Amino acid sequence: MRLARIFAIGMLISFLGALPLGTLNITAMQISISDGILPAVYFSIGALLVEIFYVRLSLVAMDWVRRQEKLFRWLEWITLLLIVALAIASFVAAASPTVEENKIISNKIPRFWLGILMSAINPVQIPFWFGWSTILFTKKVLEPNNSHFNTYIAGIGIGTFLGNAVFIFGGQLIVNKLEEHQSIIQWIIGAVFAITAIIQFWRMLRRKNQLS
User: Fold this and answer.
1) Which residues contact 93 (CB under 8 A, 6 or more apart)?
2) Looking only at Cα atoms, what is the longest distance across the chain?
């Protein structure tokens, strides 16, 4: 019964955490629109495997993770540049007189490995799960043993996949509604990436000011 509770908590936190607009879920939606549902699913599986690895790392090495502030700052800048590049690529595709795809996403990299790559350089999930895991340890919901860790991580994996599925199938609904207006879709996706980049940059500046 306790393991079922841990599984449900991990799944709920992960599902809700996957719903706010971000690099990975919007990319999954765009892959769903441009390549189809199955490639988007492969992308999501690759991304969530890295997330699971990060969660496991944060669970077994909390002290080490807490000290890696400089690494996280570099990863934040890399992620910000990637989001800006994705926004620009979407705007370029939308402004083209012929229907084009996002040049960054529309590459020959298998979608599974693209998910792994983009998730690996996305540091937002590390402090997110570090914070939640710390709360669950403090509340005695989680205990430092393999059965709790494995159940928690399994719930997280399924929750993340369900959250991404909202965007994957939502992307299909959008493209079906706007089938003859592909440029509108690209403008919308570009705008989402641009807003995400602004929010990311604002958070980085705010964190820097707080540290100062």
Assistant:
1) 99, 100, 101, 102, 103, 183, 186, 190
2) 58
Cβ partners under 8 Å of residue 102, min gap 6: 30, 34, 86, 89, 90, 93, 186, 189
For the entire predicted model, the pTM comes to 0.66
Q: How far apart are CA 30 and CA 183, in angstroms?
A: 13
Structural domain total, the chain: 1
Mean pLDDT of 162-171: 86
* Across 167-187, average pLDDT: 68
d(CA 19, CA 163): 6
- Measured CA to CA, the distance from residue 162 to residue 202 in angstroms comes to 28
Residue type, 148: H
Domain range enclosing 180: 2-211
> 180: phi > 0 → left, psi -120 to 50 → alpha, else beta; which?
alpha
What's residue 162's pLDDT? Answer: 92
Write out the two tokens for 121.
């350089």
Residue 80 CA: distances (Å) to CA of 118, 122, 123, 187: 12, 9, 11, 19
- Torsion from C-alpha of 128, 34, 32, 200, nearest 10 degrees: 10
d(CA 107, CA 128): 30
Best CA proximity match to 130, nearest among 67, 45, 87: 67
